[in-house]
Amino acid sequence: VSTTTRSLGSAEFRHRLEGQGLGIRIGPFSVWLQARVQDLAAPLFDLYGDYPWLDADQVFSAHVLMEQVPRWGRRTTRRVRFTVDGRAPHEDLPVGQALAVFEWGLNLVLTMRFLRYLMLHAAVVERNGRGLLLPAWPGHGKTTLCAALVHRGWRLLSDEFGLLEPGTVDLIPAPRPMPLKNQSIDVIRSFVPDAMLGPAIPNTRKGTVAHVRVPAESVRRMGETAPATWIVFPRWVAGAALSLEPMPKAPAFVQLTGNAFNYESRGEAAFTTVRDLVARSSCWRLQYSRLDEAVEAFDRMAEGAGHD
Amino acid sequence: MTEPVGSLDAVRKTFASQSTLASRQLLVSLLRAPQHLVDLRGRDLDFALRIARRARLLGRLAWSLRERDLLGHLDRQARDQLESALVAVEARTRLATWELDRVDWALRGRYDGPLIALKGSAYVLAGLPNSRGRPFADVDLLVRDSALASVETALRERGWRPHELTAYDENYYRAWAHEIPALVHPEREVEVDLHRAILMRTARLRPSTELLVAASRRIPESRFSVLAPVDMVLHATVHLLYGGEMDDELRELVDIDELLRHFAGHEPGFWQQFWPRAVELDLARPAFYGLRYAARLLQTPVPDSVLQQSRTAAPPAPVLALMDALVPAALFPQHPDMPRRSIQAARLLLYMRSHWVRMPPVMLAKHLAYKACLRRKQSP
């Protein structure tokens, strides 16, 4: 029994955010957030409106405070400080980037604090009760593909974390807004005009970033795990024809583990989990240049049997 | 124990305010009676976990609960955090243990003299109780000054490299410090710190490395030795207030507490040897502080006779009064949501003191001036 942050209304949401704070549940995680930063409450309300809000009387994954740093002189840029449980894990950043700072900061905290889970670096979506892992291959369009799929019949589990309880192959949802970078922003705007995007934030360390809101159904069903069924390594190549080729298990294993957030820290349990994951899933290499072709390829995949 | 710590009612009562004092009492009671964590609920449990994390005691707490088979009594969110703290500690311990193995390999046939593991590595090698759930960062090794160059050369020949350093820092280490710049193997991440002494060469106190080496004990079936029990505690007391940074350093006092409790029960003649050895090693003052604050803040049982002996090394009364005010403030973690400026000030004073006792005044002035210029250059 929980109510969404949207049900609070934007004024009350802002009042809490800037006052004592507000709890938000995100899959197995929960964050207590206080933010006294200009132009942050509105996009947060927009992006996190469908999430359940939590009162203060529980254990939180992290207590996050976002504050504008007093400025010395007029010429310097106004900066925002991300503080988690009283400590700032990185330098202050321009206040205009506050939303991206929150999202990246929370990723950082989760990867550091929840080492008991196996955290693969991958986008995860689901269809017909079967999970699809899209491992990150930097610059090859994991987030773009993921944002497209979740507006074409797939459910979002995560754009960043392939989250697993070691010893199981069920992917755990922790859906969060999907950060599109640079050209992908316009690609998604034209490909899925109904996608809701947060403000475009220029000049971050990853260029311009805009966050895609998670479809409401994916948030509502964030308690439902999905067994891993497909592992597809996407690769965007300008002008390339679509190709979907089976990938041998051994390189799939190596790619997955080499890119995980905490493969080493879970030791043997991580090894056996990824081994089982790769053994039961069908593994593919996808090369594409056109998003519509790629999405169709995944649709065909979902209609098939799934396993090799 | 002077008060019924760990009583749940007492814990609940102190929570009401979640003040700095409450967080201190809470931490002490959880150190003594970790099982009471599972009786806490909601915001109380949340606050307890935050304070323990801040004090870097979450892993220790998790270890105690797992040992008592109590982790299953907690809800998922709390259990996830505690189990993750254990995973973090165990992964780091594995890395450090592997690094020790690699050091052993690198030195084989090149250096067979005494090689003494210090701090975290020593606690793990010797299987001491304070190694359970204890986070640690680096591998610290002590060798005789005369052996330092050959050990360093052997490690470098096997691939270890120092971080890039400025000429100033390089000289600081080589000329004054008790350790050389940290060495890291490019395939791994754990730093190896080679020490020639346990205090800076410029410090007024001069514990003899020769005496430490002579009393050190070989770990069975290992290449490594550890300091003798009394020396190990004395080294921990040096770290408490002579290390430099003063930032939620309760962990250091917990080491002293757990080592004292362990050795008092397992090492025949431990307390008889303690004070004479502190004097012999020129570590009477740090030993005095270590015993005083362990007994006062963590209720460590220390024989009255030893406490009495240690008073001979107390500083003048006004200094002691000042230290009594500053040390608890500096050791216990800041309240995560309500940091206090007075505590920041206490830490700054102790930080300055730790430099004062390690360097002669002129050198200290030069060093701080250099650091200040550096900081100004780096900040935008």
Provide an overview of this structure:
The complex is a heterodimer of chains A (308) and B (380). In chain A, 31% of the residues lie in helices and 31% in strands. Chain A contains nine helices and 17 strands. With 380 residues, chain B is mostly helical. In chain B, helix 11 packs across helix 13 (284-298). The relative contact order of chain B is 0.09. The interface between A and B is medium-sized, with 23 and 27 residues.
Largest sheet of chain B: 7 strands, mixed
The largest inter-chain interface, given as chain pair and residues per side, is: A-B, 23 and 27 residues
**How do the strands line up in the largest sheet of chain A?**
3-1-2-4-5-6
Work out the radius of gyration of chain A: 19 Å
User: What is the oligomer described by this structure?
Assistant: heterodimer
- SSE string of chain A, helices as H and strands as E: HEEHEEEEHEEHEEEEHEEHEEHHEH
Q: Approximately how much beta-strand content do the residues of chain B carry?
A: 5-15%
Biggest sheet: strand arrangement of chain B? 3-4-5-2-1-7-6
* Share of residues in strands of chain A: 25-35%
Number of helices of chain A: 9
| Biggest sheet architecture of chain A | 6 strands, mixed
Low-confidence segments of chain B:
1-8, 10-17
Compile the SSE list and pairings.
The complex is a heterodimer of chains A (308) and B (380).
Chain A: H1 10-18, E1 22-26, E2 29-36, H2 41-48, E3 53-54, E4 62-69, E5 79-84, E6 93-94, H3 98-113, E7 118-127, E8 130-135, H4 142-149, E9 155-158, E10 161-164, E11 170-172, E12 178-181, H5 183-191, E13 201-204, E14 207-212, H6 216-220, E15 226-236, E16 243-246, H7 249-258, H8 263-280, E17 282-288, H9 291-303
Parallel strand pairs in A: 2-4, 8-15, 15-17
Antiparallel strand pairs in A: 1-2, 1-3, 4-5, 5-6, 7-8, 7-9, 7-10, 10-11, 11-15, 12-14, 13-14, 16-17
Helix pairs in contact in A: 7-8
Chain B: H1 8-15, H2 20-32, H3 42-54, H4 58-67, H5 76-107, E1 116-118, H6 119-125, E2 139-142, H7 145-157, E3 161-162, H8 167-176, E4 183-184, E5 191-195, H9 209-215, E6 217-218, E7 225-226, H10 229-242, H11 250-266, H12 270-280, H13 284-298, H14 304-310, H15 317-331, H16 341-356, H17 361-378
Parallel strand pairs in B: 1-7, 2-5
Antiparallel strand pairs in B: 1-2, 3-4, 4-5, 6-7
